[in-house]
Batch of 3 targets.
Target 1
Amino acid sequence: MVDFDLRSANARLRASNPLIQCITNTVVQQFSANVLLAIGASPAMLDHEADAGQFAGIASGVLINFGTASNHQLLAADAAIDVANAASKPWVLDPVSVGAVDFRTSRIRRAAADHPTAIRGNASEIAALAGVGLGGRGVDSTDDVDAVLPAAAKLARETGAIVAVSGPTDAIVAHIDGADHVARIAGGHEYMPLVIGTGCSLGAVTAAYLAAARGGLADPDADASAVNASEHTTSGEAASARFEAVVAAHAHFAVAGEDAAEGAKGPGSYSVNFLDALHAVDDDRLAQARVSLDTLAADEGARA
């Protein structure tokens, strides 16, 4: 059974100050940059095809989010993904509105086929990317988190990625050593969906925690085989470290989301409080996150 040490995950993040390249939604660039600074990471919003690939070799991790993708961003994403994979750097795919329109869907599926380290989306996006749903309405989800867990497990097995499904209770699915492991993280607040950028910036935070986890491995370069191998098999220290990192990122958001509600009068004041709360989360506070761990039954994991 996989176990988590969230205190150490947070400590590694703060100590390593990972540099995260964000090729992301233009609506949320500033918010995402502020979120990364608040948790102890460094943001870089380099998203032009002329230098995105080169910078991916410098960055500790990469976020790919096609929320408002331009031609420049699409080409930049292709270049950054190639370099990140070649250099064994972690990268995160946020499949914003996959299934809504054809071209967007085809480009997101193409990125998913390039073996992201993690995929983070709402329930409808994860279902659509797994090929068992039509997608949400824009960035909204029309599906229940638990209902799409078999789809998330299918996606994890097919891509080798850790798959995170956001909702009132987040669920993280990892296929490790032949089993579909599921971590559920409770927390957050009802104001979070009313603040633009909370979901997109969570993808950036996930990349930061993954980068810190990779730096903590005895042999970081050996991590590549688990993500990029043609058989998509995940096992051992590297896979467990990635699973823990994605859980830690979501736990960080969950506890900060709860803490930010104190004194908030609405989404505006909550947004300010949220950045402060993210910054205030320390090892002990992260360890208080409400995380439960389970495995999907074999027939449930194969149902999608």
Target 2
Amino acid sequence: MKAQAPPEPTTADGDIRKVGVEIEFAGLDPMATAEMVQSLFDGRIEVQSAHRMKVSDTQWGDFKIELDSHYVHPESPEEAAKAPGDDWDRMRRDLDRRSRELLGDMVTGLVPTEVVCPPVPWDELDKLDALFDGLREHGAKGTEASLLYGFGLHLNPELPSLEAEDILRYLRAYLLSADWLREQIRVDITREVLPHANPFHKRYCLKLFDEDYAPDIDQLIDDYLADNDTRNRDLDMLPLFAHLRPDHPHELFRKELVQPRPTFHYRLPNAQLSEADWGAVTEWNRWLEVERLACAPETLHERMAEYRARHLDSSLWQKIKHKLKGDSKDG
């Protein structure tokens, strides 16, 4: 399957836009995964700790591979170098390292392995799909393999522009497309009940779909945080906003898991490794429905108006019913 071209294929600097990909799965530990990645894309395996690897110097950059839990990873060499260095501290750090390694051994198979791929040009995503084929061939299991597997795939599409009005039209297009995307993905029940990729609230959608809403970057960020004080949105804007405003005072911007970058963070709620033709290209091609809508201003504004009419009318009717119920009680 080939990756389809986006309507805006380059960045403001004229470079081909890139896409970051993250995939979670069970059935394959980090070292076996690193060896498979190296066999596909060359590079060098670097063992950073018992359950954290890196395959560096591939054609696109570095692949990061680890058990997806910070509890099983010891402090980094950089952190250890900053720590006190007497015998007691060295013994404490060594005990902590061995305890975390043992915990990682115990939870392997329950805690997913995660591969964080380097940014790949969108027109080379079909080459990256060799990773998904390799995972299937080596027995990796996706969301559908167990009720315990709340795994997902994340796409991080680089934006064509970092201007507020352009970010807004893409965000509006996503909010209008989100229900359709979830239907296409066929969200697994394990992801429906977990908070990792929650939809946006209607209140926030109505705010953004107001035709008079024309924020600058700072207002766009503050309005987002006012209604979405969480990382758990299906389109997580925090990495982009942290990139644009690294000194923003909100506490979420200080979280280690928020990695600043000029991309959307699209948190797909399924990892469908049981499907033979499923991979990054499948989800990229679906995502492009958002981008096509963002680049069709008349259609975008028509759909915004339809949404507001439908939901504002519904809200008004609920208020009327509440008023009538109160009047009947008074009578």
Target 3
Amino acid sequence: MSGLVPGDGSVFGAVHLGYVVVESARLGEWRRFGADAIGMHADDVDSSTLRFRLDEHACRFLVEQGPQEDVTAVGWQVDDHETFDRIIARVSDRGVPISEGSAEDAARRGVERLWRFPGPKGIRQEIFTVPVTTPEPLRMLSSGWVTGEAGMGHVAIVSREPESLRGYYETVFDSRLSDYIDENVSGLTLKIRFLRVNERHHSIAIANIRGVKIDPIRTRVQHINIQSGSLDDVLAAYGRVTDLGFRMAWSVGQHTNDRELSFYCVTPSGFELEVGWNPIVFGPERESTWEPTTYQGISIWGHTPVGETVLDKFAQFRQVVRTLRTPEITVPALSGGMAR
């Protein structure tokens, strides 16, 4: 268990992003994107299931055949059974339905057992303690990815109910606020909250669009982040994404708050994937002295939009019309943390 765990009943430091589940009808494109462009290890489980590996874990991305073109679940690895039971109790004691996943579900996700419960924006939250690991060598273009105590990366969500999301992850995982970023996008000022649950600067990012009656993002998540082990790998992946004809969303740049150098490209399902390198890490000393602050602008340099077209603008407008009267999915019983 990480040295960041305070031992006061908190689960902070004992939870790590383990895997992401995607539903897509474009498995062939996902294989080409994940393996040939990004450089991950790909396994075809069967004709309707594709998995990607980043490390010794059997599964980090699970792509299942289906029509949604979206992230449907995220899996969180929990260090020990005591912490696992504590999280289960937090959820069930508040009257939120929780159920054990089937043996087939667990096998497809590369874990021994899992339990699941509702999450914000309809993204199921799944927790497990024992990942299935494999001695099979990684076959991938990348030289390596950073996982371990930091988990596999982070999830970024655009929300009209940011306080509810922050409260949810405080209640369930004892998340801590790392910092804020104020950013102007197309004339709209967003306040982005960055939440950590372990040594990674953030495992959840929440972009605030409260007061706006629309959600400009079709998918449940805005992006998923994975961390490369080397700058050379980031730049090589950027070149492959471009050469293979996948859409680049934001050019290479460096963030103001966690100092990660990264680029953003568009997955076959429409949400973005951020490939990054070298963000700051919260060791015990930084954890004990850190004070959240607000940064003006998301990037020190770079991260400029790439290739937005008139058709993209029309697609965004159609999404605005569809979501104008659609309430955002929240889980009120689990949103009572220190949200603000």
